[in-house]
């Protein structure tokens, strides 16, 4: 089976001055980022949003991948943007925010700033510790997708949560949490006041853990987890453009 219609990776080639890498969430697809990407492209940025390995096809495919595969895909996309754009920003939703943090930890000031939307770095529920064992017995559990407040809006994501892949995500959380102090770039963190997937402690851990001195927190009052497709989407889009313009490298003045 090929990639689901609408789940394809996308890109917009705009200015060579500023690039923006977008990272989608666990079991999700670039569809959840498309409107955001269109808005960034409309502002003149070069935009890339890869489809993460194991995503956008059938949920069993995700169980055959690990966080290193997902990270490898966004890392490759980032390197391509860094090769073509003077200034590069990275943004992500949920696990996409986790991957964004990992890129910030590795690449330092080569990334001009990061935008995080309901990022995940932990899960407090009791079953999380059982994921490695559970993955050997149960291939999947009910889906976490489609937590959207806006009527009529649907996330293109898997109908089941692959357990082995979820166990790998938990390993990524531990890696990212351990290195949060390496994040020094400007941070724009937007999180929903009501989120049925990612608990509030996640944003608190990020805000407390990063070393960045330029940090902006925005509470999304009218959206659930998939905020990029929800009532506050325009807030995310507008604030991310303002953030990127404020932190982009200024063109050198000619004499």
TrEMBL record:
InterPro entries: AB_hydrolase_fold, Esterase_lipase, Hydrolase_4, MAG_DAG_Lipase. Residues 20-230 form the Serine aminopeptidase S33 domain. The active site is at residues 94, 195, 225. Gene3D superfamilies: alpha/beta hydrolase (3.40.50.1820). One of its GO terms (molecular function) is carboxylic ester hydrolase activity. The record marks 144 as: Important for substrate specificity. It comes from the Bacteria. Coiled coil: none annotated. Substrate binds at residues 26, 95. This is Carboxylesterase. The lineage of its organism: Bacteria, Bacillati, Actinomycetota, Actinomycetes, Pseudonocardiales.
């Amino acid at each position: 089976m090929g990639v689901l219609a609408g789940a394809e990776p996308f890109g917009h080639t705009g200015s060579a001055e500023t690039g923006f890498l977008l990272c989608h969430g666990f079991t999700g697809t670039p569809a959840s980022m498309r409107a955001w990407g269109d808005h960034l492209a409309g502002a003149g940025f070069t935009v890339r949003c890869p489809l993460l390995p194991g995503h956008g096809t059938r949920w069993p495919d995700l169980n055959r991948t690990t966080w290193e595969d997902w990270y490898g895909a966004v890392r490759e996309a980032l390197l391509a943007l860094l090769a073509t754009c003077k200034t590069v920003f990275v943004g992500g939703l949920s696990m996409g925010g986790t991957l964004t943090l990992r890129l910030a930890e590795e690449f330092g000031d080569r990334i001009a700033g990061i935008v995080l939307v309901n990022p995940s770095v932990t899960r407090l529920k009791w079953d999380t510790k059982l994921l490695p064992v559970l993955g050997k017995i149960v291939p999947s559990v009910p889906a976490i997708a489609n937590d959207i407040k806006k009527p009529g809006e649907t996330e293109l994501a898997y109908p089941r949560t692959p357990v082995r892949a979820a166990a790998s995500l938990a390993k990524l959380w531990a890696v990212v949490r351990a290195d949060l102090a390496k994040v020094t770039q400007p941070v724009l963190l937007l999180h929903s006041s009501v989120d049925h997937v990612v608990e509030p402690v996640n944003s608190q851990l990020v805000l407390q853990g990063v070393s960045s001195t330029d940090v902006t927190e925005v509470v999304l009052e009218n959206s659930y987890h998939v905020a990029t497709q929800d009532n506050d989407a325009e807030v995310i889009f507008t604030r991310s453009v303002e953030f990127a313009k404020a932190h982009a490298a200024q063109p050198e003045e000619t004499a």
